[in-house]
Amino acid sequence: MSNTVTLHSKAILVTYHDPFAKQEAIGLAESAGFEVTQIVVQRYLKHGEFGVGSGKAEEIKQIAEASGCKDIIVDEGLTSSQIYNLSKLTGKNIIDREKLILDIFASRATTTEAKLQVQLAELGYEMPRARQNVRLSVKGEQQGLSGIGEYAVDVRFRALKKQMVSIKAKLREAEKRRDLYRSQRQKLNTPLVSLVGYTSSGKTTLFNRMTDEDKEVASSLFTTLGTTTRTMSLPDSTKILLSDTVGFISRLPTYMIEAFKSTLEELNYADIVLLVVDASEPPYDVSIKYNTCLTTLEGLKVTPSRVITVLNKSDIASKTNMNEVKDIVGDATQTVISAKRGDGIHVLKNLIMQNTKLAPEAVPLK
Fold first, then answer.
1. End-to-end CA distance of the chain
2. 34 bridge partner residues
């Protein structure tokens, strides 16, 4: 299944002044299939009745009317009221950052488990907005919020909670299957190495390089959403398992991380975690992305001593840039590679071999 994105709609993007935030918001919009025609910057988002100041809201309205765009993307999570108010003022469809990411997730999910996790994340997005959404929908049909309006709110809220319980039960079944697979792996004493990193850091390219796989690689964000595990050989011919996982991103809401937690918690069982960093990017961007990854790994309780930082894309990174990136990573165990060209892969495999503790009775996979 191809993840190639076709730009299907022009949109106005409302984001922060910060260059990194702006570039990432454009990447998210394009990954969701939007063509950003105009950018409106704002120092603060999420505030006020529109998510932006009233003056800025009027400015956005004028730009939207002149542009002919049907969609306005706001690079922050908004409340139902803020979305409703801004939509009513501009006459346009409002998509906040969280909804945008969820739409990308939904388009990328291919496995049953990934689809369930996306559904759980979507419910996590809708639950706190449910009461407000129903009240907004019945507003104007009656006076006040009592009677049938309150009943509709409770019915909707209970329906969402029921869906959430059902999905969590299905995900627990998937987790049981993973536990069984893990116990079988442990009996064979087969090491597991997991790839993590910021979205678009080159994890899947490295996965393909090391396992001779042909997983799809794309420049759009979140090309990989589920987890894929394959065998690979170390220089001493030992077989290990290598897993490719969903990419991280800054400002990811807690409920989204919780939705994918059952998959991400597999990192706790990995003998080694390879943290892939795009070393060709500006050091400021690398610093934000690297620290986002470290924070996420810390939240997942991944032991730092098991993490090897892999500085990728050495084929296009300047020497000066690479040195600055090395300084950002600091004392962490690190190695330099080009997953695309193959540079440094042998060194990386040797590093994995040195850091993977193999029991004498380990049985290689057939």
1. 29
2. 9
Name the amino acid, one letter, at 193.
Answer: V
**Which positions ≥6 away from 284 have C-beta within 8 Å?**
20
Helix or strand or coil: residue 77? Answer: coil
Same domain membership, residue 117 and residue 91 = no
Q: Where are the beta strands (DSSP E) in the chain?
A: 9-15, 34-41, 71-74, 93-96, 192-197, 228-233, 239-244, 272-278, 307-312, 334-336
Helix (H) or strand (E) holding 184: helix 148-188
pLDDT at 6 over 90: no
For residue 113, what are its two tokens? 């488990």
Is 314 found in the same domain as 250?
Answer: yes
Strand partners, 273: 194, 307
Tell me, yes or no, whether 93 and 231 share the same domain: no
Same domain, 80 and 114: no
Q: What is the CATH number of the domain that holds 99?
A: 3.40.50.11060
| Residues in a beta bridge with 72 | 12, 94
184 φ/ψ angles, rounded to the nearest 5 degrees: -65, -40
- The residues near 218 (Cβ < 8 Å, ≥ 6 apart) are 3, 4, 5
CA separation for the pair 20, 148 (Å, rounded): 47
Q: Is 179 a member of any domain?
A: no
Q: What are the pLDDT digits (tens) for 125-158?
A: 998 887 776 666 655 433 344 444 566 677 878 8
| Residue at token pair 């994340």 | 121
Distances (CA, A) of 345 to 135, 206, 211, 324, 349: 57, 9, 12, 22, 6
The whole-angstrom separation of Cα 250 and Cα 132 is 27
pLDDT per residue as tens digits for the range 190-215:
899 999 999 889 999 999 999 998 87
* Judgement on whether residues 140 and 270 belong to the same structural domain of the protein: no
d(CA 311, CA 329): 9
User: In the chain, how many domains are there?
Assistant: 3
198 assigned to some structural domain: yes
The range of the structural domain enclosing residue 284 comes to 190-355
